[in-house]
Amino acid sequence: MGGRSKSLLMVGNKLLLARVADALRPVCAELIGVVRPGQEDSIRDTALALRMHVVEDEERDAGPLAGICAGLSATATPLCFVTGGDHPFLSRALIKAMVDRAFVRAEPIAVVPRFRGRLQPLHAVYPTRKWLEASRTAMAGGERSPSRLIDRCLASGSPQIHVMEESETAAHDPGLRSLVDVDTPAQLERARAMESWVTSVRRGLRPPGGV
C-alpha cells in the first residue's frame, strides 16, 4: 500500500478501522486495538477515538502472532474474535455462528475459516487462555506465523480447532464478504466498488406498493 496504514484507508466514506469497530461493537463485550511499538501514524489515536482499548505488540517486529498474543493477554473475556483492521465487510451473523460453533463442547475450541484454500487466522475465534499459552510457546520457539501454528495444532489435535469450510461459512455470510481483506491497491478499489454497488442497490429499493 505504498507505506500507508491499511486500517486508515477509506471504503464507503468510512475508515476501515471504523468499519471494523462498528461491526464488532454490537457483538463483542470489548474492543482491543493492537498497534506496533512506537507506531507513528494516527492508528493509535483513531482506535482510542473509536473507544478501543489500545495495546502494543508483545514483541517488536514479530509479525501478526505477536499482535494476537497482545490482544489475548489484554482481554477479560474467555473467548476472542480476532481480526485484522482491513476487513471492510465483517458479518455479525457469521461471527455469532463462529462463537456458537466454538461452544459445541464442554470447553470452547478455536474456529478458523478456510477461504480460497487458505486458513484465515485473522478472522478467527480463539479460547483466550489456551491460545495465549500456545502462541507464546510458539513465539519462544521462533515461530512468527499464526497459520503455521494452526497447522501444527491441527496435526497434533491440541489446542482443538474447528476449520470452517466455505460451504459452512456461506450459510451465514452468503457472499463470503466477511473474509474479504485489503492488501493491495487493486483489492482496495474492488472493496470500494463492492461497497458502492451495495449502497446503490439499497438506495434504489422500494417497498411493495411504494411510489
Polypeptide structure, described:
- The chain is an alpha/beta fold and 211 residues long.
- The chain has a single domain, classed as Spore Coat Polysaccharide Biosynthesis Protein SpsA, Chain A.
- The chain is built from eight helices and nine strands.
- The protein has helices spanning 16-24, 43-49, 64-74, 92-102, 128-140, 146-156, 166-170, 185-204, and strands at 10-11, 14-15, 32-35, 53-56, 79-83, 110-115, 118-119, 123-127, 161-164.
- The strands form four sheets. Strands 7-6-9 form a three-stranded mixed beta sheet. It has a two-stranded antiparallel ribbon with strand order 1-2. A two-stranded parallel sheet has the order 3-4.
- Helix 3 packs antiparallel against helix 5.
- The radius of gyration is 18 Å and the shape is globular.
